[in-house]
Fold this protein.
Amino acid sequence: MKIKTAVFPAAGLGTRFLPATKAQPKEMLPLVDKPMIQYVIEEAQKSGIEHVIIITGRGKNSIEDHFDMSYELERNLEEKGKTELLELVQSVSNMITISYVRQKEALGLGHAILCAKHLVGNEPFAVFLGDDIVDADVPCMAQMMKAWDKHQCSIIAVEQVSMEHVSSYGVIAGEKLEDRLYKISDMVEKPKREDAPSDLAIIGRYILTPEIFDILEKTQKGAGGEIQLTDGLRTLLKTQNFYGYQFEGNRYDTGSKMGFLKATVEFALKREDLGPEFREYLKTLDL
Ligand code: G1P
């Protein structure tokens, strides 16, 4: 069975980026000239996803506007003969089928995923977290889809992180099965360094079987007083095979200011139109 649907939680308050996120969604902050959410939706599309369900909340309307047609702008660009820009703008609204569900209360990531239950139905699905942007030759989710095709069970992306950072992540315990693939035996959300079962952190890409929904309905509040996806996954892995996939590529934690800055600099350097001049500029800085 192919994975065609992806859930994209985007209802968070974005407090780490205040005041920028006071009146604008964190997901719309640009890396160079593209909103962060668009990088992730493009990854979904390149990985074969056909339908994205974005979980939104109050103050997130500009996400819907971004992926919708913009009549005034398009007419203006057309009249002025700005064909390239017109095509760019149209390509965003034609990108992929998107549905929106409102999460009325910020009750946690597990609860946000649960909000998509009625649209996903009884099929395996993907989850993308917008704070993790992965730059890779083969998109991270496409790599995971290959593993799915072979094993047909829940798979989450993992990355080795230094032990001083484990407490910012969900962390897995597992046994290495083959190159890049681990069989997960347990996982814990944001453990203290001394309680972490390994240095393999969960990164925001998941392929999940639909049984997770019934589990999340019964999952109690966990770390931070929120209904945690990791706690639901922990229950799921007691009844099904569950794998961790160590993806190839560079991951940026764009939910943190440092990760956001690193991604901005590196993505700008990679751009044909900006890179050479920006590189020369950086060289002139007295660091
Ligand atoms: C979430 C998950 C966590 C995972 C992280 C990856 O945490 O709960 O397990 O390691 O995303 O970015 P958050 O960053 O939303 O606190």
User: Anything to note?
Assistant: The mean pLDDT is 95.
